[in-house]
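Checklist before submission:
- one chain only
- standard amino acids only
- sequence pasted in full

Submission:
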Amino acid sequence: MKVINIHKRIIAQPISEIGLLLNTLATDNDQILATDKWPRMKLDNGLHIGSKGGHGPIKYFVTDYQINKSITFQFDMTGFDGFHKFELTEVEADKTELFHVIDMSTSGFATLKWMLVIRWLHDAFIEDAFDKVENYFTQEKKLSEWNLWVIILRKVMKRKGNKKVE
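Returned file contents:
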């Protein structure tokens, strides 16, 4: 199954400011991912091409990294053929588009896992990440709500011993 999953948000900050946050991805001071709600991204060699890792059960490796601009990861999982990417684009001098895309094909059991579980958790995961970035710069805190299916999946997975799921 072909999958294109896109999330984007305009943040009222210059690209240079958002770029500094992007560079913290997968560090102990990750300012992109909502690590208080979801598993941390771990990479064996940091934000460098070839570095392997993932978050939770999702595995990938870095194929491209442009400091302050973008990072691309190739999936390293059976049935998931493709990539996911964070990218920053200057909209105006003080506005930046934060963009995340999954572009992949799934096969076999991976298609069911994507359709029934991963897609829903991923969407909430990315929106929480975008909230974290936006909230870094504002007093008024944004909090995206999870849909009922995400709440149910997280409860089921928590019962299985996972404190944070994705």
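Reviewer check: The chain has a mean pLDDT of 95.
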